[in-house]
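Hi V.,

You were right to ask for the full record rather than a summary. Here it is.
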Amino acid sequence: MRHLQNVLCRTLEAVLEGKRPRMPEAGGEILDAFMDLSRARTYHASGPNPITWEAMAAWSQMMRRPLPPHHAAIVMALDDTWMQNAARKMAGGSTAAPLVSNTPLSAGLFDALTGG
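Predicted structure:
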């Protein structure tokens, strides 16, 4: 299964980069499951949320398509690949670095930022 996971993750990376990869014969149902779950992805102020195990279980029940544990693990690996790509795009193509202010946090600054 590790080989299938690597092939599918590389295929997804190529798709996200705008390339037209040759889709592998195996794993089509796993890619379909990931795409359905990704389409329903939620977002927050800092970007996309990862797919949750609960969302995957709900999708599996609703669609009546059981996902064996090893397939579910591949879907989560695909989501990791998707999230890393999204983080790169949000960082402008560079690796994401933590935002650090030159101004130390004081009680007054905290109140100003949080509306206190």
